[in-house]
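PROTEIN DESIGN WORKSHEET
SECTION A - STRUCTURE
LENGTH: 67
TOKENS:
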């Protein structure tokens, strides 16, 4: 899928997978810990993006009432 049209949540989820894949592949404990933390951060962002998409669309400002 083209990342230009990929939703932020899906993109973040892909980053989660990449971080976890790299964490499993390394034997460096500090790097593994860092990559797991990064995966957790990307997961939070993915969850937030998903929740944001679930919110109803509302206008950013109130319409002019002509007072």
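SECTION B - SEQUENCE
RESIDUE ASSIGNMENT:
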């Amino acid at each position: 899928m083209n990342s230009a049209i990929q939703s932020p949540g899906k993109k973040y989820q892909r980053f989660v997978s990449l971080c976890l894949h790299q964490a499993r592949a390394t034997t460096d404990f500090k790097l593994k810990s860092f990559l797991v933390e990064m995966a957790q951060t990307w997961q939070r962002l993915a969850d937030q993006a998903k929740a944001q998409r679930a919110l109803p669309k509302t206008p950013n400002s109130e319409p002019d009432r002509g007072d």
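SECTION C - NOTES
The mean pLDDT is 87.
Helices lie at 8-25, 29-54.
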